[in-house]
Design brief:
Largest sheet: 7 strands, mixed
Strand content: 15-25%
CATH topology of the largest domain: Glutaredoxin
Radius of gyration: 26 Å
CATH class of the largest domain: Alpha Beta
Order of helices and strands: HHEEEHEHEHEEH
Shape: globular
Number of strands: 7
Number of domains: 2
């Protein structure tokens, strides 16, 4: 009787390690998956419901009243555009993507104001986040966009400006200082108010 009881007790003790092992393995798998999501946002294609925000935070964000962080990107023609070279003009830096519905909704409004004020010194730099030129060109042609389209394939400038949603527009005055950070699609009156602050319109 005692030997059977001892065997039963021994069997109970041997069942412990596999449970611990499964718990450890589950923890390792969970941590690995979390690390992949955190450090590799490219695992989520643009347009999915889950968007992993950039993790690099060393660069200065765009702060109202401070100089706009400088950057340099290529346009659709392969020419280099540097923000600081546009000092003397007022600039709207617009972060967008072809898969972003609100971005598309505001594009005709941006184009209209650009057409109206470009001769007076308004520049629009539309920074596309992570898409290929072949994807962007038909979109630009279809909407008849005439302002500058820039490519940010690695999201470097997106990350530099710490963009949290799309579209986001940074309004920069002629001296190179940020006067407004607008997240979301523009309404007419909102854009016109910012443009007045930049010296356009009555």
């Amino acid at each position: 009787m005692s030997s059977e009881g001892g065997a039963a007790e021994g069997g109970g003790e041997r069942s412990g390690p596999p449970l611990v092992l499964f718990a450890v393995l589950g923890l390792v798998v969970g941590l690995t998956a979390g690390a992949l999501i955190f450090f590799q946002p490219q695992l989520f294609p643009p347009g999915e419901a889950v968007i992993v925000q950039p993790t690099r935070q060393s660069a200065p964000a765009a702060v109202v009243g401070a100089p706009a962080p400088d950057f340099e990107l290529l346009d659709l023609d392969g020419s280099t555009v540097r923000l600081s070279s546009l000092k003397g003009d007022a600039v709207l830096v617009n972060f967008w993507a072809t898969w972003c519905g609100p971005c598309k909704a505001e594009m005709p409004l941006l184009q209209d104001r650009y057409t109206t004020f470009r001769e007076s010194g308004l520049r629009i730099l539309a920074v596309n986040i992570g898409e290929e030129a072949e994807t962007i060109r038909p979109y630009v042609d279809d909407l008849g966009l005439g302002f500058t389209i820039l490519l940010d394939p690695a999201l470097d400038v997106n990350d530099q400006y710490r963009v949290l949603g799309y579209p986001t527009t940074i309004a920069i005055d002629r001296a190179g200082n940020v006067i407004d950070v607008h997240v979301g699609a523009w309404l007419d009156e909102q854009l016109d108010s910012v443009l007045r602050d930049l010296g356009f319109g009555g």
